[in-house]
What we know:
The protein has helices at 2-23, 63-69, 106-116, 129-135, 153-165, 181-195, 201-211, 229-250, 257-262; strands at residues 33-34, 55-58, 77-81, 89-90, 93-94, 126-127, 139-142, 171-175. By secondary structure, it is an alpha/beta fold. The protein folds into two domains: 1-30 and 93-126, no CATH class; 31-88 and 128-262, Protein tyrosine phosphatase superfamily (Protein-Tyrosine Phosphatase, Chain A, Alpha-Beta Complex).
Amino acid sequence: MRKVLIILSSLTLTLTIIVAWVMLDGYRVYRFRTSQDEIAIQSGVDLTGLRDLHLSGSNQIVFRDLYRKLENVNMPIYILDVSNNSAGYIREFTADFFGYPKSTSLKHYIRRLLIIGRFKINKSDLRSEAEVAGIYGFHYFHIPLNARTIPTDEFVDKFVAAVENIPHQAWIHTYCQSGRGRTSLAMVMVDIIKNHDLVALEDILKRQYLLGSQDLSDTSLWRNGTYTQQMLDDRKAFIIRFYHFLKQRHSGGSRSWVEWNAAGN
């Protein structure tokens, strides 16, 4: 009897490990942080307006998990998707969860068989992010930004317009594929749009970093990082210029980043 129990326990543990290996990353939102999170180190950091941002960020969304994470949010939720080259969704999972369209590892084939019932994925299986977001009652904006690049003039004006058109009493969630660089940039940009007239840029950058975003003021190269020194310098220079753009805009200056940028500011 004891041997039977040991065998059954071993089989259960093995099955649990296999299921976790195959399925777990399809059910979770990673690198999730919000403007409501506690900041452990508050000394010297201006938190003015932070809690009123109603802002969160993460990696590419598993909408079901995001819905659970924001289930206590009693206001409309707007998605600002700054990812690029997404293949969309299959059922409620991202297409790359099934290895579509490129990777076809053993894990991906098992997922296809268990969830879809076949190995082959057809284009008719795909749904857009906007369609899946709508299932959960989320409003959706897609403003694509290439990884490890400085936002284009068109992106900046579209992003500012999107944020300003979202009602004040609404929650904003932004994401990119990994939830790192572009999500950090987008969260800082939202904070600047909302609080440039109240908070110094240094504090905006620091508080977003303490919440879990990358420190956009730090241009130190990471070991095995994917950013070059020029990329880090350019990103920091962009965010400084973006802050000054919003400041002059608040004072009655140019409303368009394209025009302000073209004027050589």
